[in-house]
Amino acid sequence: MMSIKKLTFNFTACLFMFLSIETFASIGNQEEYNTHLRWKFNFDKDFLLIDKKNDVLEIKSIKTDIISSVYDEINKFQLVPKYIKSINKVISNNESKTQSIIVKLTNEAVDVFSFYRKGEKSYVLDFWIDEKKVSKVEASIKKQDEKKIVEKVALPTITEKKEILLKENYKEYPRKQKNETHRDFRYGGPFVWDYEPLSPDPKIIVDVIRKTPEFFYPIKNREYTQSDMESHLQLTINLYRKEKYGLMYNSINMFNEKYNFADRDFTEYLKSNAILRINFKTPNNAQEKMGITMLKSIAARTQNYDMKKGILKYLLNYDIHKQDYVSALKNSKKLFVITRKSFDIEESEYASRMILFNLGKLNQISKLKDLMNDKIFKKIISKQEFLAYQSYALLKMDDTNELIKFYESQKNSISGETFASIYFNVAEAYFREAKYNEAIPLFDKFIKHYSYTTKSEEARLRIALCYEFLEKPILETTELYKNTVNRSQSNQIKTEAILRYIAITNLRKIDLTNDDKQIRTFLNFEKNNTKIKDRNILKLLWLTRLRLFIIDQNYNDALAYLNIIPVDSMIPSEKRVFEADGAEIVYGLIKNSYEKMDYAKVLKVWEIYKTKYINKVALDPVLNNIVGRSYIRMSLYEGLERLISNLKLDSVQSVKTYPIWVKREKTQNFENIINELNLAKHLALKNYKKVEEILEKMGNQYKQYFYYKGLTEFNKKNYKEAIKNFETFLVKSDKNIFKDPQESADLLWAYTNSLYELGESEKFKRSVDALLEDMSEYQKKNPYIRNVKERALYLKFEMVYSENKPDQNLVLEKDIAKFLGDEPKTMYADRLNYLLGVTYIRNKKDEEGKKLFNNLLENASTSSYIKEMVKSEIGLMKIKEKI
User: Fold this and answer.
1) What is the CA radius of gyration of the chain?
2) How far is C-alpha 597 from the geometric centre of its chain's CA atoms?
3) What is the DSSP string of 563-627?
């Protein structure tokens, strides 16, 4: 049988031995989840470069040996056809012979999100399926399939297989159902950061700020009647208790001289306690350090077990208070060794727990695992306690996968009340790994059993976030955020909850009510004297305020606010969010200017911000179309050609699908946009032959075909053909046929003038009324459309006037009067006043007619031509009166 002495020696050697050999894990691994596929590679941040275009992912590196290693590792992975079609290594033909890995994705609906984990020193690639792209890919595949005539065969075609695969993927992806009332989470508060792990209770039993080592090893009275030496020591103790430290020091010096430093450990112990007592009243770092140094010296040499144990316990608590976990670990090991030698089981248990606590703080996972297998520790520490300490260390190192595996392997053996740190840390690990359904019940249990801790506030907020990520009912998620706000004492958690509450009610919600907008008053943190110091919360606050400007369509204020946010100092993933919103702000400014036909401002905003924001995100076909048309309206054809050339080069890029804050028409393909811009250019240059060539190339299935065909025929004065094409366009078009205010005006002008030229009065009058109603949203803010409207109405009034039908004259009188009331400064005012005067006379309202004619004659601005006509009418009236 092994002796206790030998057993203690072996354990002590094991405890103090540091591992010098590193264990190297595999350089990469693959993990498949319900929502996504994950690749992880253990390399430094700058070694790998990731680039995705359409359905191709390229992995590059500055070191060719790394590419080879990654490629070999990937080939070990089981291919998941849901996300990946093939993997190949490519060597360039240039002199450098650079290498890269080409990953062919299943389709363009597969998105890749990459990030770097500093704690693990690993690069992570997540493959997701973007539900917005799924329908586009399906439509594209379907369109291609319709063009092909394929004989029926027993087996499904490749295209059919793709459609089946896409539908299956679409069903499996968790965020499928379109929410008609709210935007998805990315439009709310998308910034999420890690919460600090919860450390197991270290059971610190003394407050070193107010207590001395005497708490653990009391200074007792001496047997002063036994000898003069004991009597002298008792006198010294009395002076210590009366806080007469100067006399106490003199007494100790006399004692040392007289008795040759007898009982030195005790006298030094008195001195160190006195120094620490003095330091409580008048803090001084040098003084405190001297007292602690004296205690360390006493503990190192004394043979008094109780004194040594008491000092070590005090030093251990002192080191933890100072967050010096290296020293704390050393002292906890020393305490464990002396208590085991003395068979002090209770103190050994305390020391062992403190060893685990400090190992966890120092992230020494390998040593924690070694202790788990040690027989002595197994008798002292339960599996649950080991899990508690290890959960803290693993989460602190961001090794979430290891923590989850360890928990799932041990959870069935856990009995009794579970440690708080297990609930919280494992739940946080699940959250970081996007396993929200697994995280919610553990956070719930943590709140149920440990609601009195400050960490319960974080748990409440995490549950609300899980609900939002899982797209649970909006009302439930909103109530969870409100509950977090109401039950949080921490300003940091309360502020974050408020921002997320505002995001879900004001940013994600599509149709806002006054009650929703009232919630924004919570943003006035300055008035509440709340200072936000946390960098993560500050970024969330900046984003929330910026997006409130955007949804309120205050694009100028939004741009001004964005310019003062320190975006350049952010990490790339956060920077991209602000830049993407910046691109939307710029689009909003351009769209508003375009609708006002302020084309110079469109191009000015484009040139200033295209590099700063627009080029930082995916290509926006609608924005490029607007800018291209503005070049045409300003006759800047060189700028147009540059734009078209860039569109041709960038046509392989993914089209922008997020964020879309400003409403757009349905996105067209790049080829159609380029053709449309060329059509508009040649139409403006009156190159009608070139217009017809492009139209023939595009075919009459093109949505705008008959519109451009009608304009061409109108400009060639083929009015019948123009009317035919315009009517075909109007019949085939959607309800909202106008995507461009100038197109609206051009259509109204060309169609109505064609009808007028051919004398089709009834159709002309009906068409003018219908087209003006469709164009009502542009009338007030667009001067060009207002002029076209005036022209169309004027022609209508002239046509009705020339027909001179009694029933129509009554309507004409009201219509002209209303129009002149709405547009008193119209260029047709004189002529219309003349027509109105004649109409009054036709309607037997001679007095009104005479009054209006006299006003025209007296008005100096009335043209001489109109005055002559008025005089003729007045003369006719007088002749009729004499007859």
Assistant:
1) 42
2) 34
3) HHS-GGGS-HHHHHHHHHHHHHHHHHHHHHHHHTT-HHHHHHHHHHHTTTTGGGSSB-HHHHHHH
Q: Which long-range contacts (CB under 8 A, 24 or more apart) does 324-328 make?
A: 325/358, 325/361, 325/362, 326/362, 328/354, 328/358, 328/361
Q: Residues of 174-187 as b/e, b for ≥16 C-beta within 10 angstroms?
A: ebeeeeeebbbbeb
Cα 694 to Cα 284, 622, 667, 678, 875, distances in angstroms: 87, 20, 20, 8, 59
For every residue of 859-882, DSSP letters joined together read -TTS-HHHHHHHHHHHHHHHHHHH
Distance CA 640, CA 627 (A): 8
For 805-839, the pLDDT digits (tens) are: 888 888 888 888 888 888 888 888 888 888 888 88
From the list 770, 750, 752, the residue with the least C-alpha distance to 761 is 752
- Token readout for 381 is 């520490």
Please tell me the distance from the alpha carbon of residue 583 to that of residue 479, in angstroms, as a whole number: 33
Q: What are phi and psi of 477, to 5 degrees?
A: -65, -45
> Can you give the three-state secondary structure of 755-803, one letter per residue?
HHHHCCHHHHHHHHHHHHHHCHHHHCCCHHHHHHHHHHHHHHHHHHHHH
Query: Residue 219 is which amino acid?
Result: I
Alpha carbons 88 and 80: distance in angstroms, whole number: 15
Residue 498: partners with Cβ closer than 8 Å, 6 or more residues away: 485, 522, 523
| DSSP code string of 802-833 | HH--HHHHHHHHHHHHHHHHH-TT-TTHHHHH
- C-alpha span between 550 and 294 (Å, rounded): 65
Measure the CA–CA gap between 207 and 219, rounded to whole angstroms.
Answer: 18
Instruction: Return the structure tokens found at 679.
Output: 């059509």
Residue type, 387: L
For the question of whether the overall pTM of this predicted structure is more than 0.70, the answer is no
How remote is the C-alpha of 676 from its chain's centroid?
35
Express the helix, strand and coil content of the chain in percent, nearest 5 each: 65, 5, 30
Residue identified by tokens 């799924």 is: 134
Q: Longest C-alpha distance within the chain, in Å?
A: 157
Q: What is the pLDDT of residue 49?
A: 76
Residue 704 DSSP symbol: T
Give the integer Cα–Cα distance in Å for 732 and 710: 14
Supply 882's token pair. Answer: 């004499």
Backbone φ and ψ of 58, nearest 5°: -115, 130
- CA–CA dist 183, 616 (Å, integer): 23
Per the document, the length of the chain is: 883
In the chain, the amino acid numbered 16 is F
Low-confidence stretches of the chain (pLDDT beneath 70): 1-26, 45-47, 62, 64, 92-98, 118-119, 131-179, 372-373, 415-416, 526-530, 650-654, 666-668, 734-740, 767, 770-785, 882-883
Contact between 786 and 794 under an 8 Å Cβ cutoff? The reply is: no
Tokens representing residue 39 in the block:
């690749």
pLDDT at 546: 95
Whole-number pLDDT of residue 174: 42
Per the CB < 8 A criterion, the answer to whether 599 and 590 are in contact is no
- Report how far apart the first and last C-alpha atoms of the chain are (Å, whole number): 149
DSSP of 644-661: HHHHHHHTTSPBP-S---
Residue 19, pLDDT score: 30
Encoded tokens for 795:
């022609």
**Block residue for tokens 């109409």:** 839
Report pLDDT for 873.
81
CA distances to 61, 75, 84, 118 from 69, rounded to whole Å, are 11, 10, 19, 21
The residues, ordered by sequence, that sit 6+ positions from 581 with a Cβ below 8 Å of its Cβ are 543, 546, 547, 550, 562, 659, 661
